[in-house]
Amino acid sequence: MDLINKKICMTKDIGIHGNLFGGILLAWIDEAAAAYATEYCHTPNMVTLKVAEMIFKKPVKAGQHLRIYGAVESLGKTSITLRMEARKYNLYSGGEETIVCTTNITFVRIDEDGTPTPIGETIRRRHFEKTAPSIS
């Protein structure tokens, strides 16, 4: 997985149970995924279509650092699905990471009217060359 973004959980991000509010984490993950999808597909015209089940595995407290990672799960004609992970990391232990949240997010490339439009053939070819199993 590629490191996309880093965040620090601030007091303003904490919910009523003393943990990072899930909606804030969702926004951070969606923003990181959107940046990754637009860069991967070489177009700013990507919109979130679907956020799959968000699995919150561990709490995040104020002052803790997060890293947001992503990887391409699949590439369709007009869409890209990313596997996303948020991990907290411990600065005192050399950056040991613990997964706190996972999800898949799908984006669709759109035209100026909001209609789905194909992802460029060069992008698709590069993706499939990168992900094709090598024959030895």
The N- and C-terminal alpha carbons lie at a distance of 25 Å
Task: Determine the strand fraction and express it as a percent band.
Answer: 35-45%
The helix content is 10-25%
- Radius of gyration (CA) equals 17 Å
Unreliable parts:
none
Count of folded domains: 1
Shape: globular
Number of helices: 2
- Please, what is the CATH homologous superfamily? Hotdog Thioesterase
**What do the pLDDT scores average to?**
94
Q: Briefly, what CATH class?
A: Alpha Beta
The profile of the biggest β sheet is: 6 strands, antiparallel
Overall strand count: 6
Question: Any overview of this molecule?
Answer:
It is a single chain. With 136 residues, this protein is of the alpha+beta class. The chain has one domain (2-131): Hotdog Thioesterase (Thiol Ester Dehydrase, Chain A). Helices cover 23% and strands 38% of the residues. The chain contains 2 helices and 6 strands. Strands 1, 2, 3, 4, 5 and 6 form a 6-stranded antiparallel sheet that branches. A hairpin with a 5-residue loop joins strand 5 and strand 6. The radius of gyration is 17 Å and the shape is globular. The model has no long low-confidence stretch (mean pLDDT 94).
How are the elements arranged and paired?
Elements: E1 2-8, H1 22-41, E2 46-51, E3 55-56, E4 65-75, E5 79-90, E6 96-109, H2 121-131
Key structural traits:
136 residues, alpha+beta, Thiol Ester Dehydrase, Chain A, 6-stranded antiparallel β-sheet, 2 helices, 6 strands, 23% helix
